[in-house]
Every structure is written in structure tokens, then in C-alpha cells.
């Protein structure tokens, strides 16, 4: 397994975000456009000021190559996991290693009991990350997401602290 570390996002990481979100698949999935220095800094700022979330830069060999986060932490000690890697870092196990670290952190440091995530059915790579990180499939949510006017089914996965 590849070695990754997680750390907080820093303002000097903005060019990395801009590069990552210039990829067509990443740009399509962003809640808002991240195509300027200001937008990148705002994205980092949103994560930095939330009580219900924590995001981490994923670092390999000293270079930021992605993001993992847990958000929407609720009163039931449940959180929503998200992840992405830059195109050049894909296919090497980076996302799996990062999600495993995030999961350990969320259970140990935040005291969460349940972590959930979802991926479009047409994204088998994301499914592989979830499965390899120990998240069990729980079902399909029909037409849950909408990108550019097209609806997508989402497969939900979850992992419990007791798994």
C-alpha cells in the first residue's frame, strides 16, 4: 500500500486545487466552479470554518495529490465521506489509503460511529475505493444527483466503527 499523509489545507495549496479542478471530471462534480485563486481559497475556507466537517489534503512524497473529508456530522455520530485525487495520482491506491486514514481519524478523534459515502453507478473507480477501504454496499439511491441536467443513480456504502 502506498504511503500517504493527511494534513490541513494551506493557502499555498491553491494552485494544486486549480490544477485538480481543471480536469473535466472534477470540474463537473464541484458544487461551484474552482477556477480562480480566490475560488480555491474560498473552497479551503469553507472547510476550515465548519463544526460539522473536516477536510484534509492528501500528501504523497511531499506533494498534495488529493482531498479526503468527512462532513455533515450529525447528532447520531454519523458523517459523510468524500474523496478525490488529481488525475496524475489515480490508479495507485492513493485514495484507498487516504480514506482508510480518514476513517481511522473519524472513529478515533471525532468519536463517530457510522460513516457513509456514495458514488455514481457509472464510476466504478470510486466504488473500488469505497470497497477496498472497508465500506459495505447498502443500496442504490435512484436519480439522486444531477449534473448538467442529467440525473444519476448513486450507490451508497457505509462503514461502522464496529466493522
From TrEMBL:
It comes from the Bacteria. GO terms for molecular function: protein N-terminal-serine acetyltransferase activity; protein-N-terminal-alanine acetyltransferase activity. Keywords: Transferase. One of its GO terms (cellular component) is cytoplasm. This is RimJ/RimL family protein N-acetyltransferase. Residues 4-163 form the N-acetyltransferase domain.
